[in-house]
Amino acid sequence: MRYVLDLVYLLVLLLLFPWLLYKALTTGKYRRGLLAKLLGHVDVPPSSRPRAWFHGVSVGEVHLLRQVVGAFRRRHPDWDCVVSTTTDTGFDEATKAFPDLPVIFYPFDFSWAVRRLLNAVRPSLIVLAESELWPNFLLAAHSRDVPVVIVNGRLSPRSAARHRRLRWLTRFLWNRVALIVAQNQEHAESYRRIGIDPRRVLVSGSVKFDGVAADRGSQRVETMRQLLAVKPGDRVWVCGSTQTPEEEIALEIFRKLREEIPGLRLGLVPRQKDRFDEVAVLLERSGLPFVRRSRLQGPVGDPSAVVLVDSIGELGAIWGLAEVAFVGGSLDGRRGGQNMIEPAAYGAAVVFGPHVWNFKDIAARLVGVEGAVQVNDGEELGSVVRELFLDGERRERMGEAARQFVRRQQGATAATMTALDTVLATVPAGQGVADDGPRAQLRRGA
To answer: Are 334 and 357 in contact, with CB atoms under 8 Å apart?
Structure first.
């Protein structure tokens, strides 16, 4: 099986190579950690203690892991931990979040890279944040008797339908996952419907509610407030994790409202680093004054300027300034929405579009408690934002409902630790990965 998969991956890589080379040369993407990903060479110090390997694909999953890894280390101080990620931004965020832990790049799913990396890390437990299932990786971990657990698991309707259609092909993947700790009952049921043993699916709630920043007076928020020169009486609208064409829609709304709403401020935070320059060009063409966060040497001088937050890891602090928060990736119909928990925790009046399947349950419940408004399109977004800034009482009522909703959902990290303990009870004391695990030795007749 692994050799067939290697051949398929190589063929795909050859087909994509011209495009990957072009992107690497023009944007710098895909260069960093390339040898580690392709060959599995990483620098992880050896240890005689059991080791847990935690993986988060990018920034969002790394943020989630801060709570999980922290709780795991407090609960199991006799274990070592390693964190891996896939993207450059995820790697940068992980090194900041876990300065005292080894942070490595997750390998491409070639059998040699997976084998070499497993032998270097020698995990006794592998924990994947939300989902990152690759056949060779799961097969290699399974052959070494290393349990793989998915935490904060979610399965979107599209993914669930795809897995049901290909159940005959994907079932072997899921059968090599020891436990799935789902965000809610709906996701848990989706896992069960694709054929996973119900005994291996538990529900914890969403870890993203735990540890979320909620203090508008925190040092991070205050530092950002001073940098962006936000003064009492300013009306701050933050559009975060935006995608095409949401920035253009937001700018048009801002252009219309800034004359009607004195002190209106706009912060734009694109979701992807490689779109920062693209959005800057859009701002230049708009004719609106703007500043780029990356170029600020001191406080913003022009209070009417749109702030383009072209930096990584600062969205949380920016949300802390928002009176009204638009959560992006929800108007275009392709992304399925982004995390609306952070602005809700700060007590912002939250608005998002119709396409929020990645956070379907959370979005519906936020709307249900009147802590958020879901709009159908850009035109309705403009109307709602206008109404919220003109109606301070409604805006504050929504913000308080959102804040209280987040507080009531917390506790998923503790439930996740309890679930992980059921798996740890099956891990033999001192187990680590050697070059060949027990199953491999049995196949050789050892």
So the answer is: no
